[in-house]
């Protein structure tokens, strides 16, 4: 039987300072190419990728003539993909070792159409020079006993950073996925991302995977063994979808969420027997986004710093025995 191949598609805008850290992590077993779509970045992305290409010749670089946003950039990657599967990566995150093998195993074992990794977002106390220690600490967190702590379709709440203990070593069926997922290439070409998600493109992945579920009857799974690790805000800075600051991001997220609801909510309600109006869901979503970003008090910040300094980063031997 022919070994299945993977094309990794990564859209990027203004993240040249992170690409040396992120792109190599996606080049794992079964990956035959990494397609980087540079969405007309104004930094030195081109030069960084040229340097990376010398060590990783499977990187294929495409640059948009003008800024087209994430959805359109991903569609360009889909069109160029040669692999049997596509994995959608991010330019501000890394895929942990052996993750691709786990996703491939789940894809074939469950005969599914898409399988996603576990997304973990680093907090402000993350230290890049202590990455392994931080990950040992972080990966143990998030074990829950109630599936609604992971998926709550009626309220459009998805916390895929959590996982059910019973699914730690096997896959969990899901109605939609987050950005980091492995998808059959032929199916991705039929569905495509919706380029009408503008600005920060909030919900573009939710829309894509829900449509796979609703319109193509795709079987979607979540495998917590595979992990995509997002770098913290202070490393990402105000780049990519966060460019312009919080207020602009918030307004864009509200607009994108409403567009998603008008497009999909009727079909979601019909399939999952939900009785909530678009207005209710949208009002709830807006209320969940504060007008100003939440700030940690000085005391709480100090206590967290002490916790990480004494119980996480400096307790290397203890963590190493876990």
Notes on the protein architecture:
The chain has 322 residues and is an alpha/beta fold. It has one domain (6-245): Spore Coat Polysaccharide Biosynthesis Protein SpsA, Chain A (Alpha-Beta Complex). The protein is 41% helix and 19% strand. It has twelve helices and 13 strands. Residues 316-322 have low confidence and may be disordered.
Kindly report how far apart the N and C termini lie: 39 Å
Mean pLDDT: 91
Count of β-strands: 13
Order of helices and strands: EHEHEHEEHEHEEEEEEHHEHHHHH
Helix content: 40-55%
Rounded Rg: 20 Å
**CATH fourth-tier homologous superfamily:** Spore Coat Polysaccharide Biosynthesis Protein SpsA, Chain A
Features:
12 helices; two-stranded parallel sheet; Spore Coat Polysaccharide Biosynthesis Protein SpsA, Chain A; nine-stranded mixed sheet; globular; disordered C terminus; alpha/beta; about 325 residues; single chain
Lay out the secondary structure.
Elements: E1 6-12, H1 16-22, E2 31-38, H2 45-55, E3 59-63, H3 69-80, E4 85-88, E5 93-95, H4 99-109, E6 114-121, H5 131-139, E7 143-144, E8 151-152, E9 157-158, E10 163-164, E11 172-173, E12 181-184, H6 185-191, H7 204-216, E13 220-230, H8 233-236, H9 246-272, H10 278-288, H11 298-313, H12 316-320
Helix pairs in contact: 1-2, 7-9, 9-10
